[in-house]
Amino acid sequence: MPLTLDDLLGRARSLPRDGRRAVLGIAGSPGAGKTTLAENLVRELNGSGPPWVAHVPMDGFHLADAELERLGRRDRKGAPDTFDAAGYAALLRRLREDEYGDVVYAPGFERVLEQPIAGAVAVPPAARLVVSEGNYLLLEAGVWPRVRAGLDEVWFCELDEPERLRRLIARHERFGKGHEEAVEWVMRSDQRNAELVAAARERADLLVPMGELTLKY
Question: The pTM is what?
Fold first, then answer.
C-alpha cells in the first residue's frame, strides 16, 4: 500500500519514548519537499492543543555571505562546506539531550535576504519532538556524521526529477531571481549538490515518495 501522511504521523508520534525528547531528520535534494513535509508534520501533530513538536531547519546554519566571500565559496552557496555543520551537530545534541529543560534558541534563515538570523527559532521545554530538515543529514564526509548521530531517525524525500527541478526553479524566482538566472543557478550549483545528496539516500531509515503524498502547501 502507498505510504500516507497518516502513516508518517504515526511513525513520528512514536519517536519520543519515556518522556525523552526525540529529533527527526528529513533529508532530500533541493526542491524535493523537505520543508513542506516538515511543516505538515508539525502542524498536524500539534493540532489545536499545546504545541509539543518544534521545527528547526538546518538552513539557519548557512555561513553568512561575508564569510563565504572571505573563504572564496560565495559562488557555491548551498554546498556542504558552506554550512556550519559542527554548530548544527552541537545544537542537535543539545536538543536531544535536553539536559537543563531550558528554552533552546536556534538560528533561522531569511529567504528574501538569503542570510541566517541568530536566535530566530525557539524550542520550548515542552517540545518532545523536534523536526529538522536539511540536504546533508546523511552525508558521510567531514563532520556530517556528527549530524546523523544527533538524529533518532532520518527520512529521505524522493520526488520525480522534472518536478523537483520545476519546483526549485520556481522557488528561486519567487525569492527574486529572473527565470534565466534561476535556471542557471539550479543547473550549475543546486544540481551538483542534489547528486551528492541523492547518493546518500540508501542510508535513510525511510524513503518518502513525495509525489504520492497529499500535503498542504
Answer: 0.90
